[in-house]
Amino acid sequence: MSMTSLPVFLLPIFVLLSLICLCKSDDRLSPAKPLSAGDKLVSSNGVFALGFFSPTNSTADSYIGIWYNNVTKRTYVWVANRDSPITSGSPGKLVVTNNSNLVVSDSQGRTRWTTMNNFTSGTTGTSAILLNSGNFVIRLPNGTDIWQSFHHPTDTILPGMPLPLSTNDDLYTRLVAWRGPDDPATSNYSMGGDSSSDLQVVIWNGTRPYWRRSPWNGELVTASYQSSTGFIMTLRIVYRGDDLYMTFTVSDDSPSMRMTLQYTGMFQFLVWNRESSSWDVFTEQPSPSCDQYAYCGPFGYCDATEAVPKCSCLSGFEPDGVNFSRGCRRKEDLRCGGGDNFLTLRGMKIPDKFVYVRNRSFDQCRAECSRSCVCTAYAYANLQNGSTSDDLSRCLIWLGELVDAGKFRDGENLYLRLASSTVAKESNVLKIVLPIIAGILILTCVSLVWICKSRGKRRIKETKDTYTRQPSKNPKSNELENETIELPYICFEDVVTATGNFSDHNMLGKGGFGKVYKGWLEGGNEVAVKRLSKNSGQGAGEFRNEVVLIAKLQHRNLVRLLGYCTHEDEKLLIYEYLPNKSLDAFLFDATRNFVLDWQTRFKVIKGIARGLLYLHQDSRLTIIHRDLKASNVLLDAEMNPKISDFGMARIFGGNEQQANTVRVVGTYGYMSPEYAMEGSFSVKSDTYSFGVLLLEIVSGIKISSSHLIMDFPSLIAYAWSLWKDGNARELVDSSITETCPLHEVLRCIQLGLLCVQDDPSARPLMSSVVFMLENETAPLPTPKEPVYFRQRKYEVEDQRHDYDQEISLNGMTMTMQEGR
Ligand SMILES: *[C@@H]1O[C@H](CO)[C@@H](O)[C@H](O)[C@H]1NC(C)=O
Ligand SMILES: *[C@@H]1O[C@H](CO)[C@@H](O)[C@H](O)[C@H]1NC(C)=O
Ligand SMILES: *[C@@H]1O[C@H](CO)[C@@H](O)[C@H](O)[C@H]1NC(C)=O
Ligand SMILES: *[C@@H]1O[C@H](CO)[C@@H](O)[C@H](O)[C@H]1NC(C)=O
Ligand SMILES: *[C@@H]1O[C@H](CO)[C@@H](O)[C@H](O)[C@H]1NC(C)=O
Ligand SMILES: *[C@@H]1O[C@H](CO)[C@@H](O)[C@H](O)[C@H]1NC(C)=O
Ligand SMILES: *[C@@H]1O[C@H](CO)[C@@H](O)[C@H](O)[C@H]1NC(C)=O
Ligand SMILES: *[C@@H]1O[C@H](CO)[C@@H](O)[C@H](O)[C@H]1NC(C)=O
Ligand SMILES: *[C@@H]1O[C@H](CO)[C@@H](O)[C@H](O)[C@H]1NC(C)=O
Ligand SMILES: *[C@@H]1O[C@H](CO)[C@@H](O)[C@H](O)[C@H]1NC(C)=O
């Protein structure tokens, strides 16, 4: 039907009709007006559209998404049902329900996605609106927005959209990349605030950091870019209530801009170029070369001030090996006490794995670091404009390696601890280098003249030089030999003799990795011999390499490895013998636990924490213990704790920092939920085991005790319940209640609960744990409830019957009484 054929009197009606049709591309939904496949909402400024789409032109899967209405290359900025598409052939529907939820359902009426607000008060007139900013909101009639897509991002940040850095808020969310260019499903790349500090933004590849922004230093404008055509984009940090957010703003009438975590893991800032009809990349992270997380290894840094960024060692350090795969090592050991000093490094990207100490002045921050012999550096900033609390300080200290450091134009100061003599040398480098260069130049001129004059004498001189240099070479090669610790091989016959042919009489214990025997080597030295079970899957050569690596781990809270032995498929490790046996022998024995007064228990807790920190961070290897428990902590004559069985996970073929494993080693009760359920482990799994052990030491209750603890399904649930109600003191072992300083014990309990939180990223690193144990005034975060165990309890309750029943839970048997 063409316009000219219309009778004139029908024209107004036609105009009216077409207006009604236009309402189809309205900017809002109401309960009475759902959105079907083919319809779309358009924001009132015409910039954004929302509707059903299929990423490829095939109609296989469809999603609800938001895209730019006026950008010729279809670009999605938000997807609702990314992990549950509506599958082929069934056009879906998006509705806003009377109880103020958005629901995406397929043709059979099955819900594929919903906002899940529990908003039940009877309201009419709720609507869902696509705002001009690209934010899709559910709005109550009185104007309150109860849900917004900006709080549930997909992979894109739009101007004005906040990305939370801190996690006090339950809205805590991350950007998660698409799985592929045409697949909106969630992938392994994510980006967001790092919950262990609330100060920095990290991109993760799975659970491994891939890139990291330097921690926030109080500046509200962290970057500002001006394009050649004049518009300005500003990256800001904003406070809303107590929470920090990263966001960006753009000047008016700028083209479309977005920040997107691409499916490749790259975080890009993109600008729409109308001329070329394409997205221009303004900046991207990680930039090529050494910007990736920890690329330059421990104590190395990526120098972005160079024309081509490259790895270097921090002052006072030298490369450990030919390249930076192992980072850098100290030229001169720290002395502790008065022998060390701090060197100021300017323009640095602050390294990761810091401990955030609250409420300290600059001088107090420095003192904090000087006081602890394991502290390697500190950094300080004043959060003057950014903080809503009284505490304006940002004191960071490092206990152990410095990883992922960098140097860039707007970097801040890092104060690095070095032996005093090194500091003197390093800070004098400039004063010395310039005269040296001048000296060399003069010398070169002089010697050129001299060489020309005395060509004939040269050969003799040279041979003389090489001769005189030789003796000075020898001490150097000796040094190298000393470095490769040669671990004694002990022959099998000697081990058989030492242990009385592995007689049961000499057996000290057995565990997941094999049996342990007491033995007497020649000269009557007592040793403990660990006979590994035969399924390690390692050859003799591989085994030897592992053992040599592990032998290099020397720490006063680790059991010392004295030698090893292989014979056919036997593999044996020889350790120092500790007469006092293991912690569990004292802790859970009512006749012996009086030996463990609070001072001793606290010493044991701190020692175990230091030993674990060494395994995780200070050694070159990053060892995850994976089986920390009371029976693996041995006590020496002075009741100092020594962790045993470390490095076993490596010998049994699990030497990645973070991995999934089919073979779950470890002990139920001490295993973190993610390890027990999914087999995924990290240093945070050890933190969990440490938390359990800590609660055991304080309470004297075995995690695997076969009785219900005061009606609670586990020690953890019991401890949580007491702590939450302010009754944590009741958890303390009755044999020490009267003599212990209450504040110390209560701090320990809170720390234990922090370590056993369900979310691995919420658990502290061992460096923080050590710090919090050693500093009474360091504030402790508030732990979240360990829900895993509560849920387990519900599972049990679901199966309840009217009679007493025995249920096996987490490998322990417990009896439940259900009275009716
Ligand atoms: C989808 O169709 C458009 C035009 O209809 C075409 O330009 C584009 O290349 C197609 N995309 C794919 C992935 O086939
Ligand atoms: C849409 O794009 C065209 C050119 O591609 C431009 O002329 C028009 O102003 C744009 N409209 C809006 C609402 O941005
Ligand atoms: C929603 O409320 C309106 C008006 O109160 C009512 O007519 C409609 O049936 C309700 N819809 C549903 C799904 O309950
Ligand atoms: C809504 O209630 C369900 C179950 O009652 C709960 O799991 C969910 O977390 C609640 N959602 C919100 C947003 O509170
Ligand atoms: C709007 O109504 C909701 C619930 O009826 C209420 O929680 C909210 O405070 C109200 N907002 C305003 C601005 O009145
Ligand atoms: C994501 O991680 C899981 C487990 O960590 C792995 O199985 C999967 O292959 C990874 N996917 C990609 C695309 O790398
Ligand atoms: C992300 O991790 C996977 C293995 O988990 C690896 O194959 C992939 O190369 C990593 N991606 C990047 C960009 O490093
Ligand atoms: C704090 O604000 C003042 C003025 O409001 C400004 O001069 C100063 O540079 C700001 N400091 C920081 C660290 O942002
Ligand atoms: C660094 O050196 C080690 C062995 O010396 C080698 O295995 C590794 O591939 C090297 N890495 C790079 C990036 O060259
Ligand atoms: C910071 O410490 C001082 C004492 O050094 C104390 O008076 C003040 O209350 C503390 N402030 C905060 C916010 O904790």
UniProtKB/TrEMBL annotation:
<protein>
    <recommendedName>
        <fullName>Receptor-like serine/threonine-protein kinase</fullName>
        <ecNumber>2.7.11.1</ecNumber>
    </recommendedName>
</protein>
<dbReference type="Pfam" id="PF01453">
    <property type="entry name" value="B_lectin"/>
</dbReference>
<dbReference type="InterPro" id="IPR000858">
    <property type="entry name" value="S_locus_glycoprot_dom"/>
</dbReference>
<keyword id="KW-0547">Nucleotide-binding</keyword>
<feature type="binding site">
    <location>
        <position position="530"/>
    </location>
    <ligand>
        <name>ATP</name>
    </ligand>
</feature>
<dbReference type="InterPro" id="IPR008271">
    <property type="entry name" value="Ser/Thr_kinase_AS"/>
</dbReference>
<keyword id="KW-1133">Transmembrane helix</keyword>
<dbReference type="GO" id="GO:0005886">
    <property type="term" value="C:plasma membrane"/>
</dbReference>
<dbReference type="GO" id="GO:0004674">
    <property type="term" value="F:protein serine/threonine kinase activity"/>
</dbReference>
<feature type="transmembrane region" description="Helical">
    <location>
        <begin position="432"/>
        <end position="452"/>
    </location>
</feature>
<keyword id="KW-0808">Transferase</keyword>
<keyword id="KW-0067">ATP-binding</keyword>
<dbReference type="Pfam" id="PF08276">
    <property type="entry name" value="PAN_2"/>
</dbReference>
<keyword id="KW-0812">Transmembrane</keyword>
<dbReference type="GO" id="GO:0006955">
    <property type="term" value="P:immune response"/>
</dbReference>
<dbReference type="GO" id="GO:0048544">
    <property type="term" value="P:recognition of pollen"/>
</dbReference>
<dbReference type="InterPro" id="IPR003609">
    <property type="entry name" value="Pan_app"/>
</dbReference>
<comment type="similarity">
    <text>Belongs to the protein kinase superfamily. Ser/Thr protein kinase family.</text>
</comment>
<dbReference type="Pfam" id="PF07714">
    <property type="entry name" value="PK_Tyr_Ser-Thr"/>
</dbReference>
<keyword id="KW-0675">Receptor</keyword>
<dbReference type="InterPro" id="IPR001480">
    <property type="entry name" value="Bulb-type_lectin_dom"/>
</dbReference>
<keyword id="KW-0245">EGF-like domain</keyword>
<keyword id="KW-0325">Glycoprotein</keyword>
<dbReference type="InterPro" id="IPR000719">
    <property type="entry name" value="Prot_kinase_dom"/>
</dbReference>
<feature type="domain" description="Apple">
    <location>
        <begin position="336"/>
        <end position="419"/>
    </location>
</feature>
<dbReference type="InterPro" id="IPR011009">
    <property type="entry name" value="Kinase-like_dom_sf"/>
</dbReference>
<feature type="domain" description="Bulb-type lectin">
    <location>
        <begin position="26"/>
        <end position="151"/>
    </location>
</feature>
<dbReference type="GO" id="GO:0005524">
    <property type="term" value="F:ATP binding"/>
</dbReference>
<dbReference type="InterPro" id="IPR001245">
    <property type="entry name" value="Ser-Thr/Tyr_kinase_cat_dom"/>
</dbReference>
<dbReference type="InterPro" id="IPR024171">
    <property type="entry name" value="SRK-like_kinase"/>
</dbReference>
<keyword id="KW-0723">Serine/threonine-protein kinase</keyword>
<keyword id="KW-0472">Membrane</keyword>
<feature type="signal peptide">
    <location>
        <begin position="1"/>
        <end position="25"/>
    </location>
</feature>
<keyword id="KW-1015">Disulfide bond</keyword>
<keyword id="KW-0418">Kinase</keyword>
<dbReference type="InterPro" id="IPR036426">
    <property type="entry name" value="Bulb-type_lectin_dom_sf"/>
</dbReference>
<dbReference type="Pfam" id="PF00954">
    <property type="entry name" value="S_locus_glycop"/>
</dbReference>
<dbReference type="InterPro" id="IPR017441">
    <property type="entry name" value="Protein_kinase_ATP_BS"/>
</dbReference>
<feature type="domain" description="Protein kinase">
    <location>
        <begin position="502"/>
        <end position="788"/>
    </location>
</feature>
<keyword id="KW-0732">Signal</keyword>
<dbReference type="GO" id="GO:0051707">
    <property type="term" value="P:response to other organism"/>
</dbReference>
<dbReference type="GO" id="GO:0007165">
    <property type="term" value="P:signal transduction"/>
</dbReference>
